[in-house]
Design brief:
The structure holds two protein chains of two kinds. Chain A is built from two helices and eight strands; from the N terminus they run αββββββββα. Chain A is α+β, with helices and mostly antiparallel strands. The chains are: A alpha+beta, B alpha+beta. Chain A: It is found in: Cytoplasmic vesicle, COPI-coated vesicle membrane; Cytoplasmic vesicle, COPII-coated vesicle membrane; Endoplasmic reticulum membrane; Endoplasmic reticulum-Golgi intermediate compartment membrane.
Amino acid sequence: MPLRGFRAAGLWGWLPPLFLVALAACAARASEITFELPDNAKQCFYEEIAQGTKCTLEFQVITGGHYDVDCRLEDPDGIVLYKEMKKQYDSFTFTASRNGTYKFCFSNEFSTFTHKTVYFDFQVGEDPPLFPSENRVTALTQMESACVSIHEALKSVIDYQTHFRLREAQGRSRAEDLNTRVAYWSIGEAIILLVVSIGQVFLLKSFFSDKRTTTTRVGS
Amino acid sequence: LALYFHSGEREEKCIIEDIPSDTLVIGEYKVQRWDIHKQDFLESAPGLGMFVTVTTPFDEILLSKLYGPQGRFSFTSYLSGEHTICLQSNSTRFVAFAGSKLRIHLDIRVGEHFLDESVLQAKDKVNEVNFRLEHLIEQIHHIAKEQNYEREREEKFRKTSEETNSNILWWAIVQTLILISIGIWQIKSLRDFFISKKLV
């Protein structure tokens, strides 16, 4: 996993802006949702973003089929900013060029019968500082600096934890699939083996059986 | 409440949250209905409500309530696992009503602990740091709980892998035994058959 800077993976970034007074126009928001995408379905999400806000969209497929999904991100004018087909995991950062509603869609339309579980994390704006510098007369005290660095480190930990959790869920899903397949295949093969070998013997015997015992006879 | 998505009138939309036990989850939503005449989403439709259903990993209902067009719900998980949060409108209109859809704004926060706002208003240096420290401690607790849950899940994963491994080994042995015994039975059976038919 490449090292990435701090980012509120969960919604921890929410708390400071809720309580800090009159902060910057770009309030940081992060939404992470895990949902099930049925086969042949498309699910779109919309968000209103102000111009100049730096946003990050990250998604991962957790269970289902080949663990891939189509993703598409469009700006308010309909211009496609990001489009990838059959991706398992990706992360895309962009800066909003204009105000408006941005739309991103996940599509499972190429799949005929597998449901996919998709996780995405859409981060809008940077997190505001823990101790805002507007009302300050002095620099941050040591305590406050320590708080800030711990907060950043914890955000990073939560971020890694989320990624690890998703990878583990994906691995476990594959392992359970494998286990079920092995079980069914073993039973199936055992049955086929028995049926075929016993059938062979009886078939062979029937080739050599007396003409007198057969019901269909060539008339003489 | 910034992120939103569209849904059919009677459609149920669910999201999945894989969370450790004893975790508080708070959800906020706002729903708007599409108006055919105005060709826009109405700010608030009277009588429109949403059924919020939360299911535990073992398919027990944890929360099932009807809220208004805008609402906040919360629940605390007592088991760790995949909880499902489902939203469905209480609209009784016919599904065939063309062009009708809902816009659902949603925000789900996991493991958050509401800190006392009044503490911050004091604007006292020491109190502010205190407040931040409490927030950090909550964060650390949440991380520790997640780690613990992760340990459980990894164990389950490992068990599944080991079970697959032993299944394959067991099956290979059984298959070999079946093959050998069936082979012996085949030859013996045919030999007896040919002897009885006086061909050998």
